[in-house]
């Protein structure tokens, strides 16, 4: 194994060989899942706790399904009704959970860096399911797997990431992952939704969809993160769709075989036309959801192997 990490907190610390191993493992799980042959003993005897401090449907469900398919005992904690509401600090919550001796902790939190802080306080493997505007590593990995399956490779592709770049942890993780794998990355957004210091990301920047989409292999649309906006970032949703929503006319500027992606949930008629989203010849949005389960199975499998290896060496949790 080249993947030696104790936690999966972000894409930034991962080496390309580790990314490849994660994707290769996820590819095997994707095929096993399609044939109903997922090995139920990989995480047998291990406890997985899902802590979502932000509402989530698909990510939480995907982690839950992934853990159960591998045989873990999975517990979902309702953090909105937890002791944090009574004044308990995040560190106290971490220490309480640590005393319960879980093996895998899946965390989504609205504050950047919160998941890393938790990881420093517990003795189990921690997986970042999204923290603030920082990172969403498993989303980037499932996007990468989807691209690799559709294009047959994950290098030297031209990939456009379009929409609310400024507020998107998905965009941040994808920029890092796709850059590590030697792809050409274009960011397309209105200036109000482009992050400061974007020139340091090693990307090309466009504020015109038609120009930005010219001859790209992959079109990755992003959701407008309204819950993270505290001002007038766009004039109106109608105007936003007119200029930055993906429709057939704008997609025509990409390569004829370009694929269309969206991390979900979609705002149809705002970020993407429903006809494009449902086009089975161009859209891989449903495959992204399917690959999400496989990637999360792979991540938990590899982290569990590292955890067991550390226990074997020391006789206790490392």
From TrEMBL:
Lineage top rank: taxon: Bacteria
Gene3D superfamilies: Aspartate/ornithine carbamoyltransferase
Record flagged with keyword Transferase: yes
Keyword flag Nucleus: no
Ranges where the Aspartate/ornithine carbamoyltransferase Asp/Orn-binding domain occurs: 157-302
Keywords, alphabetical: Pyrimidine biosynthesis, Transferase
Catalytic activity, as annotated: carbamoyl phosphate + L-aspartate = N-carbamoyl-L-aspartate + phosphate + H(+)
Pfam families, alphabetized: OTCace, OTCace_N
PROSITE patterns linked to this entry: CARBAMOYLTRANSFERASE
Residues involved in L-aspartate binding: 86, 169, 223
Residue stretches making up the Aspartate/ornithine carbamoyltransferase carbamoyl-P binding domain: 6-148
UniProt GO MF annotations: aspartate carbamoyltransferase activity
Subunit relationships: Heterododecamer (2C3:3R2) of six catalytic PyrB chains organized as two trimers (C3), and six regulatory PyrI chains organized as three dimers (R2).
Name of the protein: Aspartate carbamoyltransferase
Species whose genome carries this gene: Limimaricola variabilis
